[in-house]
Write a structure and sequence with these properties.
Largest sheet: 2 strands, antiparallel
Number of helices: 8
Subcellular location: Membrane
Structural class: mainly alpha
Radius of gyration: 20 Å
Mean pLDDT: 83
InterPro entries: Nuc_sug_transpt
Helix content: over 70%
Shape: globular
Strand content: under 5%
Membrane topology: Multi-pass membrane protein
Keywords: Membrane, Sugar transport, Transmembrane, Transmembrane helix, Transport
Number of domains: 1
GO molecular function, one term: pyrimidine nucleotide-sugar transmembrane transporter activity
Low-confidence stretches: 66-73
Length: about 220
């Protein structure tokens, strides 16, 4: 996908997941959203775009792109195929999140941990198949498959935090909704940015404050 657009455009366009999730929520869950709630979600989307622009600015502008002639240029670009692929990606992302919510709530009395095992065992299987296939063809005559090759202590920390994040998100989806999950994810970016100020001495720019105010307004309007 990123062969057809620069990383900055990918980051910005990825915010369309907010809108596609809301659309899928309406189609699958059959939950009608009021006009002010749609407006609130659009504000949340705008805040996500502002946050993305802020991270681009903090990264010293747009990443450099290398042309076919080898020349280096600074510009943002999106190929039509790239836009089509990001649209498919956002649609699938919204559908999968809302479908998971539908499954979790359909069997509401079942333990969330049992439900997670059934839901994500498929993901383990589907990811193991290509991993083993790549290992077989890349090792030549001497086949070797080491799933934990290159893992360090920090790798396990990342895995642990991602696993806990997935469990928490599952609880939020089951007992609340995907819309709440969108707000949680958006505000987690704000928290991460604030922590980065103290940990990495990153300076916040105007885009961060625009994103923060926009997200606060979005949350207030949605629940007003």
């Amino acid at each position: 996908m990123q062969l057809y657009m620069d990383p900055a455009s990918y980051q910005i366009l990825g915010n369309f997941k907010i809108l596609t999730t809301a659309i899928m929520y309406r189609l699958i869950i059959k939950q009608n959203l009021k006009r002010k709630q749609w407006f609130a979600l659009f504000l949340l989307f705008s805040g996500g775009v502002a946050y993305s622009l802020g991270t681009i600015r903090n990264s010293s502008g747009v990443p450099k792109q290398i042309t076919t002639s080898g020349a280096v240029m600074n510009r943002m670009y999106v190929h039509p195929l790239g836009f089509f692929m990001i649209a498919i990606y956002c649609t699938i992302s919204g559908f999968s999140g809302v479908y998971n919510e539908w499954i979790l709530k359909k069997y509401y009395t079942e333990s969330i941990h049992i439900q997670n095992i059934f839901l994500y065992t498929y993901g383990v299987i589907f990811n193991l198949i290509p991993a083993i296939t790549v290992a077989m063809y890349s090792s030549g005559s001497s086949y070797s498959f080491n799933l934990f090759h290159g893992f360090t202590f920090y790798t396990w920390i990342i895995i642990l935090t991602q696993a806990l994040s997935g469990i928490f998100m599952g609880v939020i989806i089951k007992h609340s909704s995907n819309i709440i999950r969108l707000f949680v994810i958006s505000f987690s970016l704000i928290v991460a940015a604030i922590l980065s100020v103290f940990v990495f001495n990153i300076h916040l720019n105007i885009y961060f404050f625009i994103a923060f105010i926009t997200m606060i307004c979005s949350l207030s309007i949605y629940y007003s």
